[in-house]
Design goal:
This protein is mainly α. The chain folds into two domains: 55 residues, Homeodomain-like (Arc Repressor Mutant, subunit A, Orthogonal Bundle); 151 residues, Tetracycline Repressor, domain 2. It contains twelve helices and no strands. Helix 4 packs across helix 5 and helix 10 packs antiparallel against helix 12. It is globular, with a radius of gyration of 22 Å. Pfam families: TetR_C_29, TetR_N.
Length: 222
């Protein structure tokens, strides 16, 4: 008589539970990989370290992501997804044009301030000449909703006579991103050179208001 086969624990779990476990494991890998990449850069980031910190084997990382390159692309996608989903919830279409522009400016500033790892990740990818984000069709597709929102706000403002015509929504988004990004990415070099506070809550609130005013003054119709 053959000995009874030992049943693996995974076989006893409902399929939905196993799916949740896989999703949880994948997310844990992404969270730890984000830390590893932003702490050490792409080249020096170590998948052995990521596996050890996640309490899994390196083989499992490659089961989910195939390669270190694909893992980095997935980390980028996850980081941008977090931002783009939050942008979609701003409800700019339901606001008056000035309120919509100021809300977008405040959100962008706050997001960068609250997610310095996102800023570092973008800096790292730019040092790599954007080779990973260029491979991500998802990253490109995710930009459309916010650009479409900005385009509608601008068009509505022109019709209402409060925003000047001819503003490119991508240019406006780029200008706003640059202003907010700088406040995080260049803080540690700007502060000591100019002896200027950029880190206190008062300084951040002042800069946040300044950026919102700058953007509104740029788009408004005189």
């Amino acid at each position: 008589m053959e000995p009874a086969r030992k049943i693996d624990e995974a076989e006893t779990k409902p399929k939905r539970s196993r799916k949740r476990d896989r999703e949880k494991t994948r997310q844990e890998i992404l969270d730890i990989a984000l830390e590893e990449f932003t702490e050490n850069g792409f080249a020096a980031a170590n998948t052995d370290v990521i596996a050890a910190r996640a309490g899994i084997t390196k083989r499992l990382i490659f089961y989910y992501f195939n390669s270190k390159e694909e893992l980095f692309v997935a980390v980028l996608d996850a980081a941008y997804t977090k931002m783009r989903r939050a942008e979609e919830d701003l409800g700019l279409d339901g606001l008056l044009p000035e309120a919509a522009i100021r809300t977008l400016a405040a959100f962008t500033f706050d997001f960068d301030q609250n997610n310095p790892a996102f800023v570092r990740l973008v800096l790292i990818e730019n040092l790599l000449h954007g080779r990973h984000v260029a491979r991500s069709s998802k990253a490109r597709a995710m930009t459309r909703p916010i650009i479409d929102q900005i385009r509608r706000v601008l068009a509505r403002g022109v019709v209402e006579g409060v925003i000047r015509p001819g503003i490119d929504p991508v240019e406006l988004h780029m200008t706003l991103s640059a202003l907010c990004f700088f406040s995080v990415s260049n803080r540690h070099t700007f502060e000591p050179q100019f002896s200027y506070d950029m880190s206190s809550s008062e300084a951040k609130a002042r800069r946040r208001a300044e950026i919102a005013d700058l953007i509104w003054r740029y788009v408004r119709k005189e």
